[in-house]
Each structure stands twice: as C-alpha cells, then as structure tokens.
Amino acid sequence: MAVGNIPFPELPPLEGVRLGVAMAGIKKPDRRDLVVIELPETATVSGVFTRNAFCAAPVLVAKQHLEQCRASQRSPRFWLINTGNANAGTGESGLRDARTSCAELAQQVGVSEQEVLPFSTGVIGEPLPMERLLAGLAPALESLSGDGAAWQQAGQGILTTDTRAKGSTVTLAIGDQQVTINGIAKGSGMIKPNMATMLGFVVTNAAIEAPLLDRLLRETVDRSFNCITVDSDTSTNDACMLAATGTGPRVESEEQVAVFRNALQRVMTELAQAIIRDGEGATKFVTLQVGEAKSHQEALDVAFTVAHSPLVKTALYASDANWGRILAAVGRAPVEDFDVNRVVIDLGDVRLVENGGRASGYTEAAGSAVMAQSDITIRITLGRGEESATVWTSDLSHDYVSINADYRS
C-alpha cells in the first residue's frame, strides 16, 4: 500500500556515471538485489551515515574507505549495494565479508579496494551469502549503463519492503551551463533517520570541492531525510551519499551555491517524502508544521513528539478526529515554560485548539472531513518565538504490524 501514485521519473544520463543490476538471489530468487554504481575519476564524494551504535559492517567499511580516499586524494569509483541482508550485528566476520565484497569488485574493474564503498540493507544478524553475492558481481558489471532505464532498475534493486522505486531529478543553470542532479532512495520501515534515509544515492555533474559538498549534503539532509519518520526506528544501515562528478560547471560563488543548494534540497525532499508515501502499511501522508517556536530544535521536538505518538498515528489511520490526542502529544513535548494558552492547533483549514482548549468554532464533522483525506496537514503554532520546522510522517495501520511480523518469513 502506498499513499499517492508517484511514477518513477525519467532520470537523464550523467557523463561518466553508469549503473548495473543483477539478480543474485541474496534473500529471494528472481528479484533485483545487487546494484553497482560507477563514478568517474573526476568525482568528489561525500556521505552521511547512521549514528546507531550497532552500525552495520558496510557502514564502518564505507566510512573507512571514504576517509582513505580523501587522505590519498583519490575518489571512490564504485558504490556496491545489496538488499536482502543488512550485514549488521555480524561482528568481525561481517567486516571481513564487506571488505571481501569490495576487494572482489575492485579486482574485476581494476581499482583499489578503498575505491569501492559497500552498502547493505535487509535482515539484521544474518551472515551475507557471499557465494551468491560475489557471483552476482559479473552480471551487474555487464549490465552497466547510464540511461534512464538503468537508474530505474537500480532504484528497484535497492528496495526491501518498499512497494515502488523512488527517484528524483532536477536540472538547473549555472552560468550558461546545465547542471543535473539525479537521486534514488529506498526506505519504507525502520524510518526515523538520524543522519540520512535507509539508503540514498544522489549524483550531480557539477564540480564541487569536498568541504562544500560535505556542507551541502549535511544541510539538505537535515531538512529532508532527518525530518521524516514512519515508526521512530533508526536503522543500523542508514547512509546517504552525494557525488559531484566534476564533468559540468564549477559551483563556488555564493550565488551559485545558493541556486545549487535549492535544487539539491528539492531532490532530497522529494526522495524523503516518497519514503513516507511508501511507508509500511501507510494510508495517510501527514505534514506537521510547527511555528513560532523559540528555536528550530524546539519546533522539531514538538513535531516529532506528535509524529511518534501511536495514539495520534492510529487516529489518523481510522480517520478519527480525536483532536485530544494531538493536544496531549503537544503538551508532553520537551518544551520548558510552556504556556498552553498561546498554542494554536489547526487540522487542515479547521481550527482545533486555541486559548488552552477546543476552538469555539470547531465541529466534529469538519474535523472528520479533514481526517478522511489521504494528505493531511497539522499546523501547531506555539506563540513563543520566530523559528519553525516541518516533519513528514504516516499513519499506523494493521498492515504495518503484519508486514513487520512477517518480515523474516
């Protein structure tokens, strides 16, 4: 089940970027589950990774290889992604398997092991089926292509419980030259990122120095993937990668950076919202806007408190205008010296709360009409300052429980 019909967009080719996919049978036969993404030698690469203390072996290896490439002034040339198995909670043998995967791919394409970054997603605590994974490398490399079909197949090849591939593309002008940004992502459950989404891969043909690329990735992730939640669970395998191939115009002036940042933010936000629309069992796409907070963090704290409330999320699923659940969640947010008489809560265009209680003009029929919609906006005005934040979430349905109860079967 997914909220809204969003077709996979036509992603244009990027010079020097190719994607290949194989059916390696890592968890199930006859499905794309191994993806290789090739980057040119001119690329600059940045990444953000999960802060989960039990971070997966591929996360540790990818971070290490990225640091080693930076130190030697080289660039990662390949991203290697498998689904069906997270290679998390696997100890030293998991690290060995992640490094072996990189070494085998590196040997086949003629680069150093450090120029391959591994990524995995799937079941935690199971060893990688290395024989099947390694056997899938050759067919994945044979299928390398830079066309739109390759992007879509790669988008499908990184999915787990997702119901559809997620992609985004934006084209902009830097001076008199064209810049393109393409991105794919996966994620449906175990979504409350603490750096990025489950997995996200974004590539642009712009030329951007590493320190600026790092900053742009962090800024845009913080206002996209770090503003979504399906179930408040942060994965062991989260990673979001950004590569600038350097084959297009250079981005360096303040004006150029601002234009590029806006375009990159659009790609990141579209991918993040696509994850919520494809949330496990989701029937509602919910936007939580918090305004007039003392700080951006305070606004986020209030938004996430509401977004994580099982009572709010189940009321959303039932289209039940039980506005008291929203009020109670706002009231338990970690906000000091909360003056509830200044709080205003709106459900769509219907005012729910003002002056410390139910709004005088509220009717159950009006509230129920908004709750019955598939796209819902909840606006919370705190009356404390000038900062704001937006968070996107989904409802909590019977299907969410069923999907996760049956996940390993």
Helix/strand layout:
Elements: E1 18-22, E2 34-38, E3 44-49, H1 57-71, E4 78-85, H2 91-109, E5 116-123, H3 130-135, H4 137-142, H5 148-157, E6 166-174, E7 177-186, E8 199-204, H6 210-222, E9 228-229, E10 239-244, H7 254-277, E11 285-293, H8 296-307, H9 310-317, H10 323-331, E12 344-347, E13 350-354, E14 357-358, H11 364-371, E15 375-381, E16 387-394, H12 398-405
Parallel strand pairs: 4-5, 8-10, 9-16, 11-15
Antiparallel strand pairs: 1-2, 2-4, 3-10, 6-7, 7-8, 11-16, 12-13, 12-15, 13-14
Please, could you describe this protein's structure?
The chain is an alpha+beta fold and 409 residues long. The protein is built from twelve helices and 16 strands. It has helices at 57-71, 91-109, 130-135, 137-142, 148-157, 210-222, 254-277, 296-307, 310-317, 323-331, 364-371, 398-405, and strands at 18-22, 34-38, 44-49, 78-85, 116-123, 166-174, 177-186, 199-204, 228-229, 239-244, 285-293, 344-347, 350-354, 357-358, 375-381, 387-394. It has a seven-stranded mixed β-sheet, sandwiched between helices. The protein has a five-stranded mixed β-sheet with strand order 3-10-8-7-6, sandwiched between helices. Strand 12 (344-347) and strand 13 form a beta hairpin. The longest helix is centred in the middle third of the chain and has 24 residues, at 254-277. The chain is globular, with a radius of gyration of 22 Å. The model has no long low-confidence stretch (mean pLDDT 94).
